């Protein structure tokens, strides 16, 4: 029996040692020992926050001035007319207010004076490409000692920021005109290096008739010289009046490469040409003053395209033939001729005569 128990115990031990036959785990777990954690540090005390002193309030900034807007072309043109009106009237003080004291060429700006009186002008706005200025091309007619006249060609730069001012002035001699009595009884127009003969006493007819007279009313033409000569502002036409017993009035078309073409408009019966001024609006109208045998110096306006003459009845208007028309000049629009009227030792003006309405206006 004892031997039997020993055999059973040995068999049980062999079975228990086989894989998979271990005794079940009844919930007991083996845990690895934990490392000790360092004790938590107490929170560090922060220094009290420093507060910046309150900033003083800045005063509000004034609004920036609005940027100036470039004026309209019409505003710049109105300014150039004021500039020219000051020149025509000989107003040196008024001119100074319109011209920048530092303007290049300022000294060359010519005023109307007795020996070189401005009788008209034209102004054309050119494209300058400069946003801060306007460039004008001026043609200015000067009545000089007769027979003779000039047309100056000028460039004027007008600045506008802060108000209109002439900021630059340039005379253009190569385009300017000068009309003079040349030798041999000829009239010549000079333009830069070019010269054109516009009238020749030797080529005039021996006889002619007064304006409006019949074909049988011809008289001998006075050829003692030239009393009046005046070019249009473009130089395309020249009005001239001879000197002598019966002066001949005519207009020549300028030909820079050959002989001029002349048109005879009037034979002035015992009268004398005194002055002439072309309208700046094209080459059509020209005002002429004529000393009559009665003693009056009257005004006529010639439409050179139509060959017609008209003018104000100043004898009726003044009630006397004892008057003198002088100082001819044209408004910029070329439609109104202005003049002064001397009567009884007193001078009044400007009188105005419209070539479109044929109406004369008292000053």
How would a textbook summarize the main sheet? 7 strands, antiparallel
Tell me what portion of residues adopts beta-strand conformation: 35-45%
What is the CATH level 1 assignment of the largest domain? Alpha Beta
The string of secondary-structure elements, in order, is HHHEEEEEEEEEEEEEEEEEHEEEE
Helix content: 10-25%
The number of strands is 21
| Average residue-wise pLDDT | 87
Rg over alpha carbons: 51 Å
Overall geometry comes to: elongated
Number of helices: 4
What is the terminal separation in angstroms? 172 Å
User: How many domains make up the 3D coordinates?
Assistant: 3
CATH fold annotation of the largest domain: Nuclear Transport Factor 2, Chain: A
- Low-confidence runs: 1-33
User: What class, by secondary structure content?
Assistant: mainly beta
The CATH architecture designation of the largest domain is: Roll
Task: Provide a short characterization of the protein structure.
The chain has 363 residues and is mainly beta. Helix content is 11%, strand content 38%.
Please explain how this structure is put together:
- The protein is mostly beta strands and 363 residues long.
- It is built from four helices and 21 strands.
- It has three domains: 73-173, Nuclear Transport Factor 2, Chain: A (Roll), CATH 3.10.450.540; 180-226 and 237-270, no CATH class; 271-363.
- Strands 1, 2, 3, 4, 5, 6 and 7 form a seven-stranded antiparallel sheet that branches. A four-stranded antiparallel sheet has the order 10-11-12-13, with no helix packed on it. It has a four-stranded antiparallel sheet with strand order 14-15-16-17, with no helix packed on it.
- The protein is elongated.
């Amino acid at each position: 029996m004892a031997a039997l128990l020993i055999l059973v115990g040995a068999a049980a031990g062999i079975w228990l040692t086989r894989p998979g036959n271990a005794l079940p785990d009844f919930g007991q777990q083996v845990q690895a020992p934990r490392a000790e954690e360092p004790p938590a540090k107490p929170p560090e005390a922060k220094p009290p926050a420093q507060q910046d002193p309150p900033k003083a309030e800045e005063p509000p900034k004034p609004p920036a001035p609005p940027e100036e807007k470039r004026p309209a072309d019409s505003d710049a043109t109105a300014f150039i007319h004021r500039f020219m009106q000051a020149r025509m009237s000989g107003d040196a003080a008024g001119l100074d207010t319109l011209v920048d004291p530092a303007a290049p060429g300022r000294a060359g700006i010519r005023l109307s004076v007795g020996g070189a009186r401005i009788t008209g002008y034209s102004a054309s706005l050119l494209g300058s490409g400069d946003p801060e200025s306007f460039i004008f091309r001026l043609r200015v007619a000067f009545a000089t000692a007769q027979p003779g006249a000039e047309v100056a060609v000028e460039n004027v730069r007008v600045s506008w920021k802060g108000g209109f001012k002439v900021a630059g002035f340039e005379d253009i001699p190569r385009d300017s005109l000068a009309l003079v009595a040349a030798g041999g009884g000829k009239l010549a127009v000079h333009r830069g290096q070019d010269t054109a003969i516009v009238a020749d006493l030797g080529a005039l007819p021996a006889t002619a008739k007064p304006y409006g007279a019949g074909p049988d009313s011809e008289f001998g033409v006075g050829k003692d010289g030239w009393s009046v000569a005046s070019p249009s502002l473009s130089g395309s036409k020249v009005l001239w009046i001879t000197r002598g017993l019966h002066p001949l009035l005519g207009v020549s078309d300028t030909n820079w490469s050959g002989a001029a073409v002349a048109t005879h408009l009037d034979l002035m019966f015992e009268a004398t040409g005194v002055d002439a001024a072309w309208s700046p609006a094209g080459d059509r109208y020209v005002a002429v003053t004529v000393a009559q045998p009665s003693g009056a110096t009257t005004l006529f306006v010639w439409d050179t395209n139509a060959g017609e003459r008209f003018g104000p009845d100043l004898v009726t208007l003044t009630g006397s033939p004892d008057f003198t028309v002088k100082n001819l000049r044209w408004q910029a629009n070329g439609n109104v001729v202005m003049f002064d009227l001397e009567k009884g030792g007193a001078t009044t003006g400007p009188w105005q005569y419209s070539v479109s309405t044929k109406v004369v206006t008292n000053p």
